Amino acid sequence: MPNTVLIGAQWGDEGKGKIIDVLTEQVDWVVRFQGGNNAGHTVEIGPEKYVLHLLPSGILRAGKKCVIGNGVVVDPTALVEEVKGLLDRGVDLEGRFFLSDRAHLVFPWHGLIDTAREQAKKSGERIGTTKRGIGPAYGDKAARIGLRMGDLLDPDFDALFNALLQEKNAVLTAMGAPPLDADRVLAGCRQAGEFLQPFIVDTLPLLHGALARGEPVLFEGAQGAMLDIDYGTYPFVTSSSTTAGGACTGSGVPPHAIEHVLGVVKAYTTRVGEGPFPTELHDEAGRRIQEAGREFGATTGRPRRCGWFDAVVARHACMLNGIHAWALTKLDVLDAFESIQICVAYECDGRRLETVPANVRTLQRCRPVYEEVPGWQTSTAQATCFDELPAAAQAYVRRLEAVTGVPVSILSVGPRRESTMFLASHAAAESGTLSMP
Ligand code: IMP
Fold it and tell me: How many angstroms separate the alpha carbon of residue 157 from the centre of ligand 1?
């Protein structure tokens, strides 16, 4: 498999964890490059279900090497818990998990500030964050006051930590939150540092060695293009670069090392948290999607808002990422519908828009322009190849390719590894010889 970036092309929760798990069989390395434990990747293997927040999903495939890159923000206590959870379930991490010494740390005050900021906002202004401290941690990184994984092992860590906590306690007090106990937090950090020490390395030469030897690498995106700090529905976004470019800055590899970009989209759209969502359904259809798709957040358990597929959003993600092919997930969730809508454009203030406007207030006023297609009202869950799908389901997939200008190379009709089809376009997409539909 070529070096591939896999990214979410909607608002996250596209089913990336499962696709990554399936593709990991064909690579040697899997790399997380942005986000933190706001992510929740669910992987089902036989009767076992795993939810990963920080570790790359590739960790569940024996022998595969996994990297948490410099672009990730890491809550060390949460990572320890996750690592221990896997060790308890018999997953062997020896010699195959590497944590960048340049990855920034998420401390307890980040979560408290995140929560206090959200509480201080009026309804309608809240982002609906995961309250994991992601925004404040990236804020400190940009402000050049953050501490990094490597600092945890530095003899000066206590002094660096205490200076920072003094400032953060002043912030917390000003926000009406109780200050943190320095000794308790520091002890927790030291403990986590000791546990994580064997994994903390300079991942840059490691990854470049892999590239030089031609060992295939899969870069695992978290969240989705519409949550990107620059090109998402700002300010209702996360605080990292969720696009393919983020794979370079977040892991230290050059752009030409990336040979293939795979976008993951659901056959419909969901969003968790606040912010504009043009195709959101507030009716029975939305409830049916939510129920059939088990649309509840893997990290916070919040119900996800549900709506029809939005081709304007998908095309936006194509521009940002240079998507070669789609992995289309959860097609089976639409099995029972008599008819299905596809949003092909927006209408706003009497004008037709083909692209996502930058201004969030303009986007709030956008109404979807729908194209209706027939449903198939047959189960697709048992299909093992494209030809076994009902004709209307095949037509729906082909229509999504046409309105987005990108072919589907992987199709998923259920949560298990076996419910994954590789379409004829898969090999061509990977070798770069695929033409647009
Ligand atoms: P934060 O990343 O916790 O700051 O949250 C910012 C926005 O991104 C909120 O709307 C969250 O619900 C959303 N978000 C963050 N991580 C994920 C994810 O993994 N899946 C879906 N939405 C997410």
Answer: 30
